[in-house]
Every structure is written in C-alpha cells, then in structure tokens.
C-alpha cells in the first residue's frame, strides 16, 4: 500500500496515526533516570546495546560515587568497571564515560554543552545521544533515532525503506513532517510503542491501535495488507491538516 500512496496521503496518514499514538500513550518521559544533564549524557552513552532498565540499575551507584564531570574525569577505570559490570561492553563504556568527563572538564568547564555541534564533538557522543540530551535536559527539540524508531517508522511506511537509510536520513525524513515542538515526544512515543506493541520479534498487530492503517499489519497477521481508511473524525482531520501544513518534504 505504501508504494501506491501519494506523499501527501502518507503525511496525512502519519499525522492521523500519531494522533492515535498520542491517545494510546498520553504521557511521555525519558526512560533513563537522571537528575542533571551530566547524568543524562552519561546514562545515554551507557544505554548503547542494552536496556534503559539495566542502565537505571547501575547509575545510582555510579552517580553517588561520581556526581559530576570533575569526579568522573579523575576516576580509576577499574572502579568504574566494577560498578557498571552488568552492562554489555562495560570495559569500553567505562573508558568512554571517563574520556567524556575529561573532555567536559577540559573544554566546557565541566558543564554539558547545549548545541548539537558541541555535543557531537565529545568522545562517544553521536547524534542520537545529542538529541536525547538536547530534548530532555535542555528542552531543545530533538529526534533521537534508535532501533525502535527505525523499525516502527519502517513498518508503518512513514519513510522510504529502500536500501538501508542511515539514522540521520530517517531523522531528516520524519522530522520534516512534524512541528519541531513535537519531535522529542514523537521519538519517546515511537520508542515506547516499539518496546510495548510493535516489538521486533512479535508485534502485537491484533490489538495494535494502528492496525487498520499500518501497511505491515498483514505481514504479521497473515492477512492482506490493511488499506488506509478515510478519516472519520473531523477533529482528527483538522489536526492532520494543521500538521501537514508544516511538512517541509
Ligand atoms: S499493525 Fe503491527 S506492524 Fe503495524 S504498527 Fe501495529 S504492531 Fe507494528
């Protein structure tokens, strides 16, 4: 279905589906526990290749021992390794967060910077981590693209799936269709949805709130792909039209 859908129809469907995601997941928040930008950037670096829950299990002890960049910059790596040992790649991650803290101290007075360019200049910090920090610690709209966002936006046909688009290309495509102020919550909702409903191995299409319009529903239900339904709610249509006007694609 997605291949025959016009670009405008796709964007309208994206907005309709996002409205339903907002109703399904009314409250969003970063799943990592943190109290300062420093804690968030460290927790986000630690979250690579593991779950937020597991990161949250080690960060209280880590931040009790190393509450700021100054303290972590001077840490003994073996001590850090012993605290975060339950995480995958704990040796490499220990090295990365100490180097990150040292760079914060050396170049930013121990503070976490507020811009994408500065954040991505730090060791171990890519666009995904920078977007998490910008959106959650500083209120600067950001759209982190993780494995859930990649999977869910692909299954929903919110973007072109030909080839293997980079996270940067996906970020560009999706954010072009939503107002900036929605980017952070949009990413949160897609991640929560990907963890709870549209999971990697067993998507719950039978009761998914988007199964009437998702082009991939039939792949998992063993039925023909769903056809996009006309919008029945005037309110929903108005909201979609409003967002469509902001799309820059
Ligand atoms: S219908 Fe299935 S594939 Fe589509 S978004 Fe829902 S859970 Fe994912």
Give a verbal description of the structure.
- The structure is a single chain.
- The chain has 249 residues and is mostly helical.
- The protein has two domains: 131 residues, Helix-hairpin-Helix base-excision DNA repair enzymes (C-terminal) (Endonuclease Iii, domain 2, Orthogonal Bundle), CATH 1.10.1670.10; 101 residues, Hypothetical protein, domain 2 (Endonuclease III, domain 1).
- Helices cover 55% and strands 0% of the residues.
- α2 crosses α3 and α5 packs across α6.
- The two termini are 20 Å apart.
- The chain binds iron/sulfur cluster.
- The site of iron/sulfur cluster has 14 residues, from α12.
- Iron/sulfur cluster (SF4) binds next to α12.
């Amino acid at each position: 279905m997605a291949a025959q859908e016009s670009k405008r129809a796709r964007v309208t469907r994206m907005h309709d589906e996002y409205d339903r995601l907002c109703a399904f997941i009314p409250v969003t928040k970063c799943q990592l526990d943190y109290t300062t930008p420093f804690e968030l950037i460290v927790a986000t670096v630690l979250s690579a290749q593991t779950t937020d829950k597991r990161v949250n299990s080690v960060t209280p002890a880590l931040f009790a021992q190393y509450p700021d960049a100054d303290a972590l910059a001077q840490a003994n790596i073996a001590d850090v390794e012993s605290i975060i040992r339950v995480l995958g790649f704990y040796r490499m991650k220990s090295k990365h967060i100490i180097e990150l803290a040292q760079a914060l101290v050396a170049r930013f007075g121990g503070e976490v910077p507020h811009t994408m360019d500065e954040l991505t200049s730090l060791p171990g910090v890519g666009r995904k981590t920078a977007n998490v920090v910008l959106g959650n610690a500083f209120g600067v709209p950001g759209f982190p693209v993780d494995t859930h966002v990649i999977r869910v936006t692909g299954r929903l046909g919110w973007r072109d799936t030909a080839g293997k688009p980079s996270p940067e290309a996906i970020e560009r495509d999706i954010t072009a269709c939503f107002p900036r102020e929605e980017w952070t919550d949009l990413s949160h909702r897609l991640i929560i949805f990907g963890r709870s409903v549209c999971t990697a191995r067993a998507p719950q299409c039978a009761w998914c709130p988007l199964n009437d319009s998702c082009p991939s529903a039939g792949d998992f239900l063993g039925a023909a792909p769903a056809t996009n339904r006309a919008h029945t709610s005037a309110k929903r249509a108005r909201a979609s039209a409003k967002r469509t006007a902001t799309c820059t694609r």
